[in-house]
């Protein structure tokens, strides 16, 4: 009989209980005891769900107060010195929070640890900081306490911990650069000892299986790291527990042989992202080893074709019998908790969806199918699932013949514009721009009043007419201020947008929105990604009215603001019944129409934001170029239908450009604005080295801080930029949108910025 288990459950709570409890505690509105109690209740609920779904164990160790990697760092006693934590003392919760956020109810504030994206997900982990003389010791007992907690509730427990080498690979060394990554391996012998202690202690608690997460095995690994895997797992093999080594988010590819050679109790494979690896690993699978098959996606919200999964696994079960385990492909951390909470979702669309709770049900149905134990009720559930999936395939909600026809003709859609040099001189003349033109990235402060206006309108308590007038008033203010401040290319301020993806999704066909489909992004912050379920089509112009109204208020050029196809794709749950690039192309064609309508309405500058362009990169370098090619192509499909005199901007933040600069240049935007102020213009190096030809606006101040930037400092930054690039190429703008800022500092900052640009122009 194949058993089922789970790699991890979303910790935030179906109603975001953990978020609320954390924020109340941080704000001093509740006690630590109250916070701890919320955590305990959530774990109890989540274990009960796993038990009810028939999982052979409940997973313990997936819960985290902020992030599971930070839980592990504190468990291993890794606290950077600036937090002034006494060496060798146990780490408390407030210290953990100070590491995560810089502050906590108790303890001195200090600069928070860096946060970065977990593989190719939108989840962020806290980057471990290792000192060269780092020592490790068991500094927190929360894992062991939670194991005991689950056992006391009568559960059989499978703890999960981050694998030693994945943990190390994702950490940063204080005294060496990332290029000197190999030096981290010097810490392995010491770390192995602590891991041995952890495993021994779990064994004492009666634990049999420990899930050790090593997703780094789906990355490109240098030889030294592959060798380290051999050493580490040879040493851990002698502890009295069985290790289930979990890989996910991709195919282990060239690490297949390495993995087969490791003396572990079992290995988990992601057969959703890497179904082809099964044929590679199965023939030589050792007789005594468990193979955990991840066949239910932990990264999307779609129901699984269980017949197909059963067909894939039937021969595996034949070969392995009880040594075949079934699981979701990865942790369910990246999907919403429970579809049952969605009472307003269309029934047909709902029948295609599966959130964490439903995914565990699907797993149980799969196990019953393979084990030949399908009950009457399960048989009915399987039949329902079959019907839903068959209907989905032919549903008119998904398949739009007009979109199909348009996509079929995509080859004839222009991707080329005239050479940049020709375009830019026509644009400069038409727009009448000075050197060092000034602009902003789009949004202006989103005041509580603006949010309330949008909320009331959506709730139906504010009439369309009143809503429109209120938004127009806001646009008037924003435009008036920009004129007074002397900015060159103005924006309307985006007051009608709650979110840069959601706004467009709501106006496009093919998108659905949930009420409670929250997914943790970092700490207490959650996002509710839209679901792209069908062919994407533009139903009506989405931004033309607001932008044209804003333009009517001024003689200066008004910049139209759109979210780019790659970013919409990246921040949504995307349909899995066609390649991502096919969905992206549909988005690009819809945006192309919007770009052209803006131009027709007299808008001469149009910005297409692509902040998520870089984060779409695949995990393996070998797959990068294919992605970059279609991502660039989609951007060009959106932007290439306009006249030479129409200026196309793009904006990217949180990006490294060094290794993708060629593709950035291939996007061929007339102007790119980027985030550079925090790195002191270092990011410009890539543009300099590449001899980047088009215009560029390196952000001159950090919009994440309320501080008003100093004029001289901005001038000095721009001079630094001018020493690397031609001054004719340069624009002056903030780092990113201003929506999170307040008006007073925004006013002062932009006025200072315009003065800085004036000084730069004067100093020829
Ligand atoms: N135009 C958007 C804004 O200004 C861009 C946001 C972003 O880059 N994340 O808010
Ligand atoms: Zn930005």
Automatic annotation (TrEMBL):
Task: Extract the InterPro entries matched here.
Answer: Cbl-indep_Met_Synth_N, Cobalamin-indep_Met_synthase, Met_Synth_C/arc, UROD/MetE-like_sf
The biological processes this protein is annotated with in GO are: L-methionine biosynthetic process; methylation
Q: Which residues bind L-methionine?
A: 441-443, 494, 609
Q: Where along the chain is Zn(2+) bound?
A: 651, 653, 675, 736
Q: Which cofactor does it need?
A: Zn(2+)
The record places domain Cobalamin-independent methionine synthase MetE N-terminal at 4-319
Where along this sequence does the record place binding of 5-methyltetrahydropteroyltri-L-glutamate? 16-19, 117, 122, 525-526, 571, 615
Q: Which Gene3D superfamilies match?
A: 3.20.20.210
Per UniProt, residues of the Cobalamin-independent methionine synthase MetE C-terminal/archaeal domain are: 436-758
Which parts of the sequence bind L-homocysteine?
441-443, 494, 609
Tell me the residue numbers annotated for binding Zn(2+) 1.
651, 653, 675, 736
Which residues catalyse the reaction?
A: 704 (proton donor)
What's the short name of a Pfam family annotated to this entry? Meth_synt_1
Q: Which family does it belong to?
A: Belongs to the vitamin-B12 independent methionine synthase family.
Q: What is this protein called?
A: 5-methyltetrahydropteroyltriglutamate--homocysteine methyltransferase
Q: What is the lineage of its organism?
A: Bacteria, Pseudomonadati, Pseudomonadota, Betaproteobacteria, Burkholderiales
């Amino acid at each position: 009989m194949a058993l089922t288990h789970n790699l991890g459950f979303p910790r935030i709570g179906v109603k975001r209980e953990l978020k609320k409890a954390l924020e109340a505690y941080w704000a001093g509105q509740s006690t630590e005891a109250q916070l701890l109690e919320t955590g305990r209740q959530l774990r109890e609920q989540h274990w009960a769900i796993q038990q009810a779904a028939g999982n052979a164990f409940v997973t313990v160790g997936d819960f985290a107060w902020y992030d599971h990697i930070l839980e592990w760092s504190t468990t291993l006693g890794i606290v950077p010195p600036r937090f002034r934590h006494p060496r060798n003392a146990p780490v408390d919760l407030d210290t953990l929070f100070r590491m995560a956020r810089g502050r906590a109810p108790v303890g001195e504030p200090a600069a928070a640890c860096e946060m970065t994206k977990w593989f190719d997900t939108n989840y962020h982990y806290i980057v471990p900081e290792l000192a060269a003389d780092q020592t490790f010791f068991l500094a927190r007992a929360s894992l062991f306490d939670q194991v005991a907690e689950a056992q006391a509730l009568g559960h059989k427990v499978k703890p999960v911990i981050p694998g030693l080498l994945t943990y190390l690979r994702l950490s940063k060394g204080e005294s060496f650069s990332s290029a000197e990554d190999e030096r981290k391996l010097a810490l392995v012998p010491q770390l192995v000892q602590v891991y041995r202690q952890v495993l021994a202690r779990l064994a004492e608690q009666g634990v049999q299986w420990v899930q050790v997460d090593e997703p780094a095995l789906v990355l490109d690994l240098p030889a030294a790291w592959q060798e380290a895997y051999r050493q580490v797992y040879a040493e851990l093999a002698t502890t009295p527990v069985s290790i289930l080594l979990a890989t996910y988010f991709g195919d282990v590819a060239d690490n297949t042989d390495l993995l087969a050679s490791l003396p572990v109790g079992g290995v988990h494979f992601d057969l959703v992202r890497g179904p082809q690896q099964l044929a590679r690993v199965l023939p030589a699978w050792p007789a005594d080893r468990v193979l955990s098959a991840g066949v239910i996606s932990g990264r999307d919200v779609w129901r699984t074709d269980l017949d197909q999964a059963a067909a894939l696994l039937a021969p595996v079960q034949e070969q392995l019998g009880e040594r075949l385990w079934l699981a979701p492909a990865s942790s369910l951390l990246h999907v919403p908790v429970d579809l049952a909470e969605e009472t307003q979702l269309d029934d047909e669309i709902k029948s295609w969806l599966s959130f964490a709770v439903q995914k565990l049900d699907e797993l149980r149905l799969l196990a019953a199918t393979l084990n030949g134990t399908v009950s009457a009720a399960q048989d009915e559930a399987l039949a329902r699932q079959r019907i839903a999936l068959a209907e989905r395939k032919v549903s008119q909600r998904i398949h739009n013949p007009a979109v199909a026809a348009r996509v079929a003709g995509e080859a004839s859609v222009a991707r080329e514009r005239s050479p940049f040099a020709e375009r830019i001189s026509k644009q400069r003349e038409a727009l009448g721009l000075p050197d060092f033109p000034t602009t902003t990235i789009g949004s202006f402060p989103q005041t509580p009043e603006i949010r309330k206006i949008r909320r009331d309108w959506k709730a139906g308590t504010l009439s369309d007419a009143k809503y429109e007038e209120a938004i127009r008033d806001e646009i008037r203010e924003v435009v008036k201020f920009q004129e007074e401040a002397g900015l060159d290319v103005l924006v309307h301020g985006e007051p009608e947008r709650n979110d840069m993806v959601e706004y467009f999704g709501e106006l496009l066909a093919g998108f659905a929105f949930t009420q409670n489909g929250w997914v943790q992004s970092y700490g207490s912050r959650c996002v509710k990604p839209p679901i792209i379920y069908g062919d994407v089509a533009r139903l009506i112009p989405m931004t033309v009215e607001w932008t044209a109204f804003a333009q009517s208020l001024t003689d200066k050029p008004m910049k139209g603001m759109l979210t780019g196809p790659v970013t919409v794709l990246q921040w949504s749950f995307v349909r899995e019944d066609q390649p991502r690039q096919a969905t992206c192309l549909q988005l690009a064609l819809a945006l192309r129409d919007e770009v052209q309508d803006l131009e027709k309405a007299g808008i001469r500058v149009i910005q297409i934001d692509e902040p998520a362009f870089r984060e779409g990169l695949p995990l393996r370098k070998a797959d990068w170029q294919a992605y970059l090619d279609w991502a660039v192509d989609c951007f060009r499909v959106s932007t290439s239908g306009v006249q030479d005199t129409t200026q196309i901007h793009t904006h990217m933040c949180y990006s490294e450009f060094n290794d993708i600069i060629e593709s950035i240049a291939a996007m061929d935007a007339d102007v790119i604005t980027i985030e550079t102020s925090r790195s002191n213009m270092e990011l410009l190096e890539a543009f300099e080295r590449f001899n980047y030809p088009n215009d560029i606006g390196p952000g001159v101040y950090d919009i994440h801080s309320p501080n008003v930037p100093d004029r001289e400092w901005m001038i000095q930054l721009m001079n630094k930029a001018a020493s690397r690039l031609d001054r004719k190429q340069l624009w002056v703008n903030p780092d990113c949108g201003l929506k999170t800022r307040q008006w007073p500092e925004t006013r002062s900052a932009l006025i200072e910025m315009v003065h800085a640009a004036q000084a730069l122009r004067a100093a020829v």
